[in-house]
Amino acid sequence: MCLLRAERCTSPERGLLRFLRPHFGRRLACALDVRHRRDAPEATPVLELSDAAAAAEGLYLHPRWPWRCGDYALILARRRWPRVAHFWLVEPDVHFGFATAREAFALLDESDADLVAHRFGPAGRDWRWHASMAPHAKTVHACFFPLVRVSARLIDAVAARRRAMARLGPDPDLWPNDEAVVATAAGEAGWKVDGLAARLGPDAVALSFVWRGERVHRLSRLQAQPPDGRLYHPAYGDAEYFRHIHALLREQEVPASATPPTAATPDIVMPRRLA
């Protein structure tokens, strides 16, 4: 089954649902943050990410949990669809450079791993989420969460860990994010993990961390090019693309005389000084 996790359902989200629907059919749902609004997609079941639903599972209600805690969506989906063995979780700023979703998932769906993810492994102390996860783990693990597949038993292990952490009276500033909890649960259990690059090929995964100043992709440019068999993240619409670029430029203290990006500017790779 596949879940598109979204804070809203606008044109990019609807476009991604249209791309995924021919492959997943009735096994596709939108995990939608409905705390402030509910602009539900057409022809797609909605898994409501609400405070009431999360609280009923014994989960801590971090102020930004639908964004920080994608694993909550998996826990809620596990409750709603208990017979499903694996769940894909897709973020709306992922772009599939494939002609069809069937082509994109042909190799990925063959995996029998409990976790299919990019950049999985033990995390160093300099990792952004290490400090928040370290009190709850022997060895903190990390992965990249925009596109993951998680097994039912790993979701159950994550849910148990989240509930135990919630009983400790958590500090919202030190509440671990989804990739920290899911990767650590899989790593400490020694369960099988497959990499996206191992399945698709080392050149097929162009997933990067916008907060570390890596590549930011413009969705309109990707949509205009022929399918190239690659995964892209983050892929933004023009308005959000330029907003992120300008924000990164400000953080990098780029001189005011520097030429700002325009609609003609190619995709930008920022320097790594944000790391």
UniProtKB/TrEMBL annotation:
Q: What protein am I looking at?
A: Uncharacterized protein
